Automatic annotation (TrEMBL):
This is Diamine N-acetyltransferase. The keyword Metal-binding does not apply. InterPro entries: Acyl_CoA_acyltransferase (IPR016181), GNAT_dom (IPR000182). Residues 9-170 form the N-acetyltransferase domain. Its EC number is 2.3.1.57. Transmembrane segments: none annotated. It holds the Pfam family Acetyltransf_3. PANTHER family: GNAT-FAMILY ACETYLTRANSFERASE (PTHR43415:SF3), SPERMIDINE N(1)-ACETYLTRANSFERASE (PTHR43415). GO terms for molecular function: diamine N-acetyltransferase activity. Keywords: Acyltransferase, Transferase.
């Protein structure tokens, strides 16, 4: 049985009440490198995005979920993107926005829930992620979940006046 509830966290759909949270996340320049963001987002645009968040993943080709704990604290976001049902693959990204909640296993639990959902409910053959070479925390998180490093993309992203390498990791459903 597929569940999006773990021992310490659960994954939930975006709600209109998440407007301020999403606005804050999308406009946090310190994490723009992770999402390849280059410009701020207005509340108007984010509100429009939230109004479309109900679209089926087969139509939208993406799914963004909120990571919450059982005290109803919003911990972060986890995404399925570039969903390709024909090829049975998608990208995954995760962000624990609450720094105090990092390195406690909550991101690992959320990632495990999402991977299980992708393989069982969406019937994907594989999921992948792109991680900057210097993002050791994310590399550790994904490899702990069984993702394999399958390549290094040299000079892949231009960040703060310098090129950075990026790893491609994938997990194939056996």
């Amino acid at each position: 049985m597929v569940t999006l509830k773990g021992e310490h966290v659960y994954l939930r759909a975006l709600e209109p009440e998440d407007l301020d949270f999403i606005h804050e996340v999308e406009n946090d320049e310190s994490i723009w490198e992770l999402s390849n963001t280059q410009t701020p987002y207005s509340k108007f645009l984010i509100k429009q995005y939230l109004e479309q968040a109900h679209l089926d993943i087969y139509e939208a080709k993406q799914l963004r979920l909120v990571i919450s704990d059982y005290n109803e604290n919003t911990i972060g976001l986890i995404d399925v993107f570039d969903f390709e049902f024909q090829n049975r693959k998608a990208g995954i990204g995760i962000l624990i926005t609450n720094a105090a909640k990092r390195a406690q296993g909550l991101g690992s639990e959320a990632l495990s829930l999402l991977v299980n959902y992708c393989f069982t409910q969406l019937q994907l053959h594989q999921v992948y992620c792109n991680i900057s070479e210097d993002n050791t925390a994310s590399l550790k998180l994904f490899t702990k979940q069984g993702f394999q490093n399958v390549g290094l993309k040299k000079d892949w992203n231009f960040v703060n006046g310098t090129y950075k390498n990026e790893f491609l990791l994938q997990l194939i459903n056996s």
